[in-house]
Task: structure prediction
Amino acid sequence: MQNSFPMKEWHVEHMEKTVVKYVKGLSENATGWEKRNHKKYGNLAIICRQIEYDIKHGVTLEQVFSMFSRVRNDISFANLRKGNGAMRRLDEVENRFVQPKVITWY
Result:
């Protein structure tokens, strides 16, 4: 039997880390290097692109939505939810995957 997604577990972990990193945001005492990397790689479009890449490699939408609900409701993410604007950022990412994509053909 052929395994179509040999690194599925890695992509699930990567998706979880990506969501947590984006929701957490940049700390107040971040170094210059962290600020530059956040500016370059930490915007919503890049985060969604990384999650879509993980979906392409075996992560299901059900797993993505369960991660969103875990961040929203699980006690282990309580400190993460207290962050400034964390729930707003989580809503932004979640809305990108809830709304259907509009494709325009020319």
User: Anything to note?
Assistant: The longest helix spans residues 8-24. The chain has a mean pLDDT of 91.
